[in-house]
Design a protein that fits this description.
The complex is a heterodimer.
Chain A: E1 6-15, E2 18-28, E3 33-37, H1 44-52, E4 59-64, E5 67-68, H2 74-79, E6 82-85, H3 97-104, H4 111-124, H5 126-130, H6 141-153, E7 159-163, H7 171-186, E8 190-195, H8 198-204, E9 207-212, E10 215-221, H9 222-227, H10 229-235
Parallel strand pairs in A: 3-8, 3-9, 6-7, 7-8
Antiparallel strand pairs in A: 1-2, 1-4, 4-5, 9-10
Chain B: H1 2-32, H2 39-59, H3 64-91, H4 100-121, E1 126-127, E2 136-139, E3 142-145, H5 146-168, H6 170-180, H7 182-187, H8 192-218, E4 220-221, H9 225-240, H10 245-269, H11 279-293
Antiparallel strand pairs in B: 1-4, 2-3
Helix pairs in contact in B: 1-5, 1-8, 1-9, 1-10, 2-3, 2-4, 2-8, 2-9, 3-8, 5-6, 5-8, 6-8, 9-10, 9-11, 10-11
The chains are: A alpha/beta, B mainly alpha.
């Protein structure tokens, strides 16, 4: 898969004496929405954080756009077009909504384009317009998730990585967030979606990987995975 | 009444200096959760560097109105370099160490800097050249001189500029983001180490200004002058709520006023038993009182357990 936007081979991550990721391989083609599903503690978040540069890989390769990422610090990966919406959202509670969005555009220089993108984000998430001058810490969980996504999009990423975007949200808000994910994907962005809610994730993704205790145990196109007995039993409660 | 007004003026002048130094403590604490006890020594270095530059330039025949700003800039540049170096050498390797380690290191850095200064500038008190007239102005019987007016105005301008940088610029935004969540800031593309370095340099530049102000006001500079000043400015930062910029400014001005009024009236209060030489007692009385009754400070939020 030399044409892949992201290619991970034999990735192992250990920290604090725990082998959280024990050699995983996967890829994302340009424009693809790929789901990484699995139960709590399977190593999904660690994998994402390693891709973003917040954890160091113990061994293995990560190639993004043909370049090895191993020695590139987290902040430079953003400028290369990678954006992670972390688990728990990571909004800056003491910055206003508008300032959070501007932080998303931190690596970009063009003021006029940034203003355009701000307007696009407010159109995508009208709730944020009313709250633009409020401190982000005063937003509800769902609004914070919207803000975190909008903030990530402000960097104009080529690869958007989402860590448990449905976590802790009311069903209506989950629906809204996933509609936005589909919308962004339809515009051609590559997305890596990590979710515990396997059904939801596989409904929007074209392909999926199943992760269990640090290793990928199953992969395939979403429809296959949704129909597979193993996935049904383990993650879909059927 | 004249005494009261005079003490208010003295308090505002001294408080302006405390506020500038307290900002350095509080900015570093806000971003790293670290109390940089070497910060007082940076103030001393600022005074000494300014004094050396001033003496040299006057010796070359430069006019005082040129020599003074150039010396200030020289001291600011020197202190920024010093602050940058302190963070790189002493604190960065301990970024993930237990909290006690960088605290002890800070005290070590402080001692090293004092001794270095003693080797460079000697143990003696240096007279600070009289370049600006200390022509006294009468206000309702109280006296303020030109140097003191300049100190207060300059301090206010610098503080306003700093607030502008922190709240209205991209750099300030990234500083506040790093202070709140370093990982999230990295995910925005912020080079956290660079922001931390800049924070140390900004704080050190303010310290240099404060150093020059103190020595111009009292007419002396000394290798040990940073120790007590640093402790008092730290007290001011705690009083306002450490980590909070407005708190540092408020705490600085308040501490200056408390000290000055305390020194002015301690004689009356104790029936002449204690005199104004007990001035220093008040700062530390305030420190203890704040730590006991309101550890988060006047404007601080529930981060007492972090201090």
């Amino acid at each position: 898969m030399s044409s892949a936007l992201l290619e991970v081979r034999g990735l192992k991550v250990a920290y604090g004496g725990i082998h959280a990721v024990k050699g995983v391989d996967f890829y994302i083609a340009p424009g693809e929405l790929v789901a990484l599903i699995g139960s709590n503690g399977a190593g999904k978040t660690t994998t994402l954080k390693t891709l973003a540069g917040l954890h160091a890989a113990s061994s293995g390769q990560i190639h993004y756009n043909g370049l090895s990422l191993l020695h590139i610090p987290a902040h430079q990966r953003v400028a290369m077009g990678m954006a992670l919406v972390p688990e728990g959202r990571g909004v800056f509670a003491r910055l206003s909504v508008a300032e959070n969005l501007l932080m998303g555009a931190y690596t970009r220089g063009d003021k006029a384009q940034i203003d355009d993108d701000l307007a696009r984000m407010y159109a995508l998430f009208p709730r944020l317009v009313e709250r633009r001058d409020q401190l982000a810490g005063t937003l509800s969980g769902g609004e914070q998730q919207m803000l975190a996504m909008a903030r990530a999009l402000m960097s104009r990423p080529r690869l958007l990585m989402l860590d448990e975007p449905s976590m802790g949200l009311a069903p209506l808000m989950v629906k809204k967030i996933f509609e936005t994910i589909k919308e962004v994907a339809a515009q051609g962005m590559s997305i890596l979606l990590v979710e515990q809610n396997a059904r939801l994730a596989l409904q929007v993704a074209s392909r999926g990987y199943v992760m269990e205790s640090g290793a990928i145990t199953l992969s395939g196109v979403s429809a296959e995975l949704l129909g597979s007995d193993a996935v049904q039993r383990a993650y879909l409660g059927g | 009444m004249e005494i009261f007004l005079q003490q208010i003026i003295n308090g505002l002048v001294q408080g302006s200096v405390y506020a500038l130094v307290a900002l350095g403590y509080t900015m570093v604490y806000g971003i790293l959760g670290l109390i940089n006890f070497a910060h007082g020594e940076v103030v001393m270095a600022g005074a000494m560097l300014a004094l050396s530059a001033l003496t040299a330039m006057i010796g070359w025949g430069a006019p005082p109105l040129l020599a003074l700003p150039v010396s200030l800039l020289f001291a600011m540049a020197g202190c920024m370099l010093l602050g940058f170096g302190i963070e790189r050498i002493a604190y960065r390797p301990l970024r993930h160490a237990p909290r006690l380690a960088p605290l002890i290191t800070a005290i070590g850095v402080s001692i090293v800097l004092q001794n270095l200064a003693m080797m460079i500038w000697g143990r003696e008190y240096h007279a600070f050249p009289q370049l600006i007239s200390n022509h006294p102005h009468q206000i309702y019987g109280a006296i303020i001189n030109d140097i003191q007016i300049i100190i207060v105005i300059m301090a206010l301008l610098i503080m306003a500029a700093l607030m502008g940088v922190v709240h209205r610029t991209r750099l300030g935004r990234s500083m506040r983001a790093v202070a709140e969540n370093q990982h999230a800031a990295q995910l925005m593309g912020v080079d956290v180490n660079r922001v931390i370095s800049i924070t140390f340099m900004l704080g050190s530049a303010l310290a240099a200004v404060a150093g020059l102000m103190v020595s111009a006001n009292y007419g002396i500079a000394h290798y040990y002058m940073g120790f007590l000043l640093g402790l008092k400015a730290f007290t001011a930062a705690v009083l306002g709520g450490i980590g909070n910029l407005r708190g540092a400014m408020l705490g600085g001005l308040l501490l200056g006023l408390i000290e000055s009024l305390g020194a002015g009236y301690i004689g009356d209060m104790t029936g002449g038993f204690m005199g104004s030489q007990y001035q220093d007692v008040f700062a530390f009385f305030v420190l203890i009182a704040v730590l006991v009754f309101r550890p988060s400070g006047l404007l601080g939020e529930r981060l007492a357990e972090r201090a």
